[in-house]
Specification:
Blueprint (H helix, E strand, L loop, with lengths): L1 H54 L6 E9 L2 E11 L4 E3 L6 E3 L7 H5 L1 E12 L2 E12 L8
Antiparallel strand pairs: 1-2, 2-5, 3-4, 5-6
């Protein structure tokens, strides 16, 4: 009888541990799927912006947000396009780069670039998650001279 009780205890402890491991693995798979779907949405949105920049001779300064559903998952997408006026100067002697700060002046007039800040957010198990991508694109109306 004692052997039977010991066996039941061992089986129940092992079963609880197996269920806990299964639950952890399922949450990791769900998180990985959310991350890949978020990356896919960001890639699609950035490709649309790049296409608009190439075909429309640049992009306009703006900000927007929208809700996106993929399957049973819902995401919140926001993008902000603002002039990029940070000039980075490289020191020829040391090879290091530093921001020019005030010396840059009105750089959006000279460099013709805008900074695109794209964010996608979602909630998983009551916690907010976010992926952010920043890139530079040509600003609308800037004339490039080669």
């Amino acid at each position: 009888m004692m052997e039977l009780m010991a066996t039941v205890v061992i089986i129940s402890v092992c079963l609880v541990m197996a269920l806990r491991i299964f639950s952890m693995c399922a949450s990791y798979v769900s998180e990985a799927l959310n991350n890949s779907v978020a990356a896919e949405i960001l890639k699609d949105k950035l490709n649309e912006l790049k296409e608009k920049a190439v075909l429309g001779n640049g992009v306009d300064v703006s900000s927007s947000s929208e809700s996106i559903s993929k399957g049973k998952r819902s995401f919140s997408y926001a993008e902000e396009i603002k002039p990029w006026n940070e000039l980075v100067l490289e020191d020829e002697d040391t090879g290091t780069a530093e921001a020019a700060g005030e010396e840059a002046g009105d750089e959006e007039e000279r460099n013709g670039l805008c900074e695109v800040d794209s964010k996608i957010r979602w909630k998983t198990a009551g916690r907010s998650r976010e992926v952010t991508v920043k890139t530079l694109l040509p600003i609308k109306g800037f004339r490039y001279e080669f």
